[in-house]
């Protein structure tokens, strides 16, 4: 082991914060097993042997989008044959399906439609919340909030408060991509900047809304851009404490403008997972999103820093349009089996990390699971 790695080992063992330079040493000098051993130590310190999952569905009200992010296979032009916009009836039918299946959460994100007013996005939240108040609505990425500001000329803080009063429960972590401007300028030139993304999450946290954070890796970014991204998130978390979960997202190249790039390997997926756990010392949870990783890698990731594998997930489009060959849905029985086989204890959580108790009459929220 190099002296720099030995020093990092001491820091990990004593719970001391890792610097940007330490992150670069992890990226360039640490082998997979060392990363796994250290990330697992931190994971078990924070979450014991538990692996969380939830029962949720995805709703993407439209795929029409004014932007053209080069990694996106989901978006469509206004007049494209694959363009769609869901009607109120379709949205309500999807929410009814989720409610009937015992989902605790609906994850709502989509494109920025050229002709849809701000009120349409707000109406979707009201419509679902009034019909199915028990469904937690985790809705709209910072990129969408930034778009709503452009549509209305109103500050995002006011918009977030208006949505919260209409039934918004929390914010998903999408749209973060890679914060560094050198990369952002190449993969998503026009949409919300890193500063916008971070400001919107800060405002959400200050309004009492929790949120998640993501990082899109495995395209044109370099290790220094990933470490920079993680440190910016860590700094905001120091300020607000409002982030719940970090989700590293591997780029899927099929049907995108970067389709010439290879898919991230299993080793890269596990390395990024472990380094994220080690750098984000103030994030309670790290999610191995099985839809993106495939269930086999997600299962192994539970020993490389991850303590959550997201949900049963029905109607996922963003990854499936980009070539993911994961199934659309895993049953609770299958998720629990895979977690148990990985030597972990499965615990169903709701979006805000309360335990979910299932009874013959339905589900109820149990105790709040400790956030470390
Ligand atoms: O922001 C888009 C990514 C994100 C591709 O908060 C792609 O719990 C890979 O954020 N290859 C949206 N990634 C998904 C997301 C998410 C997913 C699961 C859980 C949560 C949560 C959030 O998906 C986008 C972008 O970074 N993305 N296209 C692609 N071709
Ligand atoms: Fe639009 Fe989001 Fe796709 Fe970018 S990633 S093109 S903002 S749908």
Concise summary:
With 372 residues, the chain is of the alpha/beta class. It has 15 helices and 12 strands.
Which SSEs are present, and which pair or pack?
Elements: H1 3-14, H2 20-29, H3 32-47, E1 50-54, E2 56-59, H4 88-100, E3 105-108, H5 118-131, E4 136-139, H6 142-152, H7 156-166, E5 168-171, H8 181-187, H9 194-206, E6 210-217, H10 223-240, E7 243-250, H11 266-279, E8 285-286, H12 290-293, H13 295-301, E9 308-311, H14 318-321, H15 332-341, E10 345-348, E11 354-359, E12 362-368
Parallel strand pairs: 1-9, 1-10, 2-3, 3-4, 4-5, 5-6, 6-7, 7-8
Antiparallel strand pairs: 11-12
Ligand V47 is lined by residues 71-73, 141, 172-175, 177, 212, 214, 216, 247, 249, 251-252, 256, 289, 310, 318, 322.
């Amino acid at each position: 082991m190099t002296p720099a790695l030995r020093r990092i080992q001491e820091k990990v063992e004593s719970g001391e914060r890792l610097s940007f330079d330490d992150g670069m040493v992890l990226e360039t000098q640490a082998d997979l097993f060392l990363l796994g051993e250290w990330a697992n130590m931190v994971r078990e310190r924070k979450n014991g042997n538990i692996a969380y999952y939830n029962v949720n569905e995805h709703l993407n009200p439209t795929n029409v989008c004014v932007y053209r992010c080069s990694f996106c296979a989901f978006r469509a032009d206004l007049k494209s044959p694959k363009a769609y916009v869901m009607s109120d009836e379709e949205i309500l039918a999807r929410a009814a399906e989720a409610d009937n299946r015992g989902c605790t959460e609906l994850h709502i994100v989509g494109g920025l439609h050229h002709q849809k007013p701000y009120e349409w996005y707000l109406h979707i939240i009201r419509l679902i919340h009034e019909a199915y108040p028990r469904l937690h609505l985790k809705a709209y990425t910072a990129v969408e909030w930034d778009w709503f500001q452009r549509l209305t000329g109103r500050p995002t803080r006011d918009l977030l408060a208006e949505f919260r009063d209409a039934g918004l429960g929390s914010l998903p972590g999408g749209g973060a991509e890679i914060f560094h401007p050198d990369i952002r300028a190449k993969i998503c030139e026009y949409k919300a900047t890193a500063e916008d993304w971070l400001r919107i999450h800060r405002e959400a946290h200050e309004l009492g809304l929790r949120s998640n954070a993501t990082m899109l890796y495995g395209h044109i970014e370099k290790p220094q851009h990933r470490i920079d991204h993680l440190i910016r998130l860590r700094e905001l978390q120091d300020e607000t404490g409002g982030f719940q979960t970090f989700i590293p997202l591997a780029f899927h190249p099929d049907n995108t403008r970067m389709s010439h790039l290879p898919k991230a390997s299993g080793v890269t997926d596990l390395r990024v997972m472990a380094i994220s756990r080690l750098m984000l010392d103030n994030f309670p949870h790290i999610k191995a999103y099985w839809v993106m990783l495939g269930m086999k890698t997600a299962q192994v990731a539970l020993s490389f820093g991850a303590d959550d594998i997201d949900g049963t997930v029905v109607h996922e489009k963003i990854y499936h349009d980009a070539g993911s060959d994961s199934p659309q849905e895993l049953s609770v029985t299958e998720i629990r089996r895979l977690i148990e086989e990985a030597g972990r204890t499965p615990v169903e959580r709701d979006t805000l990390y309360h335990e979910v108790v299932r009874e013959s009459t339905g589900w109820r929220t149990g105790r709040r699971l400790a956030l470390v």
